[in-house]
């Protein structure tokens, strides 16, 4: 889930699905799921069969779609597919297309996943093309199984063209957009060697057929062919889009479009450990870059802050004891927290601080001690300090003489206390968010049991920045014992 926070903001899978609920609703999912020692339900993501079952159950649970995914075909990753569709929604809204939207899915695959999702979600009309006979047949079955023939029409492509075959017989064909998930590789060797050894291993198992993954010239040549054909049919499709699997190919394609003066924009599709890219261009009078600009803030990799927690006599190296103590400290600071992952001796929490409760702790303790001291020690009043009874009305605002005299205080003490309070408020407000919805600090907090217990803090976002997280870390270190 490393990149989930960068998903499209409307993607329902920013919050991971409830596997426990799925195991109750669907016996098929219960059969492939398993429970760890903490009772958490999970699946083996490296098992292609488990991935197929998960995807089928999510499609049924979240979209009421019955989809059959063949064992020898690609299992569509729903967060990625949704990211793409949501970006298309943004593009359509930007050019003020809201009704009777018509899309073209190039290479729709056995699941026809894009037309199915867009039809049930947005009531968009779709034409899906497919060159592989088996995938085409299965796609037709999936459309019919969900009674979506009214919205989705599938066309077999027996030519070497990508778009041109659609317009040979019908000059009336018009589309608001096209979308495509092209084959990424030019041959099997490129597929096997595509992943850098420096990257983490893939979390998911491998699925897909050679027809879906390999094409002559690879992804770059395939996308370049779409661009070449788009020039001929610039009046047939308002916005051309494609997914790009390799960032270096995206850079080349952006340069191709720029050199020809074609208006374009792009985006990132982030999910799990995988990043893909979306590329869009048009020949119409739309400045796509201005209407739907690329991601405004560059995604940065945040290195976690790691330090060793001081030993506690009551802790005895127990990560559970450390977790309970950590929860108590976060509660004192009014920092929201929830457990994201709990595996063996590693526990990860998501923490959100809405206000600065950790600064000026010494000053706050001094003020508290002084207040408690003032409450215990009676004051000695001089004659000038005495509050004299009012002979006409011996009550002030409903208070008795005694109550009124007890409210007197030393002015110098009040000035000092008020000055410190103001300074404290000023220091706190200096990092307060101007946007009430934006937290001061949003981070991952991880307890790791090795020889001793380590605390890892990874900054995600927040207007207080990494400095705010460092202050929280300092508070934890200062108060751990």
TrEMBL record:
One of its GO terms (biological process) is rRNA base methylation. S-adenosyl-L-methionine binds at residues 81, 107, 130, 181. One of its GO terms (molecular function) is methyltransferase activity. SUPFAM superfamilies: S-adenosyl-L-methionine-dependent methyltransferases. The keyword Transferase applies. The keyword S-adenosyl-L-methionine applies. This is U6 small nuclear RNA (adenine-(43)-N(6))-methyltransferase. The lineage of its organism: Eukaryota, Metazoa, Ecdysozoa, Arthropoda, Hexapoda. Keywords: Methyltransferase, S-adenosyl-L-methionine, Transferase. Belongs to the methyltransferase superfamily. METTL16/RlmF family. It is an enzyme of class 2 (transferase). Gene3D superfamilies: Vaccinia Virus protein VP39 (3.40.50.150). Pfam families: Methyltransf_10. One of its GO terms (cellular component) is nucleus. CDD domains: AdoMet_MTases. Its EC number is 2.1.1.-.
């Amino acid at each position: 889930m490393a990149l989930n926070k960068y998903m499209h903001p409307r993607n329902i899978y920013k919050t991971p699905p409830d596997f426990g609920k799925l195991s109750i609703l669907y016996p098929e999912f219960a059969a492939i799921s398993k429970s760890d020692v903490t009772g958490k339900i999970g699946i083996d993501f490296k098992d292609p069969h488990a991935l197929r079952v998960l995807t089928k159950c999510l499609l049924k649970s979240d979209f009421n779609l019955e989809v059959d995914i063949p064992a020898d075909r690609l299992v569509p990753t729903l967060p990625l597919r949704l990211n793409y569709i949501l970006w298309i929604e943004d593009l359509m809204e930007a050019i003020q297309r809201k009704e009777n939207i018509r899309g073209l899915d190039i290479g729709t695959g056995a699941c026809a996943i894009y037309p199915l999702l867009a039809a049930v979600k947005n009531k968009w009309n779709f034409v899906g093309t497919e060159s592989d006979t088996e995938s085409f047949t299965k796609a037709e079955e999936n459309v019919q199984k969900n009674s979506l023939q009214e919205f989705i029409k599938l066309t077999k492509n027996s030519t070497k063209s990508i778009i041109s075959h659609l317009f040979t017989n019908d000059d009336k064909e018009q589309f608001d957009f096209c979308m495509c998930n092209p084959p990424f590789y030019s041959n099997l060797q490129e597929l096997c060697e595509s992943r850098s050894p420096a990257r983490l291993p893939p979390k998911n198992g491998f699925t897909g057929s050679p027809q879906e993954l390999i094409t002559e010239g690879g992804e770059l040549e395939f996308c370049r062919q779409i661009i070449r054909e788009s020039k001929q049919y610039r009046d047939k499709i308002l916005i051309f889009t494609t997914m790009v699997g390799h960032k270096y190919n995206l850079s080349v394609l952006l340069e191709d479009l720029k050199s020809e003066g074609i208006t374009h924009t792009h985006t990132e599709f982030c999910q799990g450990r995988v990043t893909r890219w979306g590329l869009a261009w048009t020949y119409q009078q739309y400045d796509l870059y201005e209407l739907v600009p690329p991601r405004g803030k560059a995604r940065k990799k945040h290195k976690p802050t790691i330090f060793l927690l001081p030993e506690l006599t009551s802790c005895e190296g127990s990560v559970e004891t450390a977790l309970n103590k950590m929860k108590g400290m976060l509660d004192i600071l009014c920092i929201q927290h929830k457990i994201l992952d709990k595996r063996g001796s590693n526990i990860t929490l998501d923490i959100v601080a809405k206000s600065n409760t950790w600064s000026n702790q010494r000053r706050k303790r001094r003020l508290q001690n002084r207040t408690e001291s003032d409450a215990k020690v009676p004051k000695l009043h001089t004659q000038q300090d005495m509050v004299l009874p009012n002979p006409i009305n011996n009550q002030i605002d409903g208070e008795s003489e005694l109550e009124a005299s007890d409210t007197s205080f030393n002015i110098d003490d009040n000035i000092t206390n008020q000055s410190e309070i103001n300074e404290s408020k000023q220091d706190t407000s200096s990092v307060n968010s101007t946007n009430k919805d934006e937290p001061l600090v949003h981070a991952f907090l991880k307890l790791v049991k090795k020889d001793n217990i380590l605390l890892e803090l990874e900054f995600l976002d927040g207007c207080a920045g990494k400095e705010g997280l460092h202050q929280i870390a300092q508070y934890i270190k200062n108060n751990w014992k």
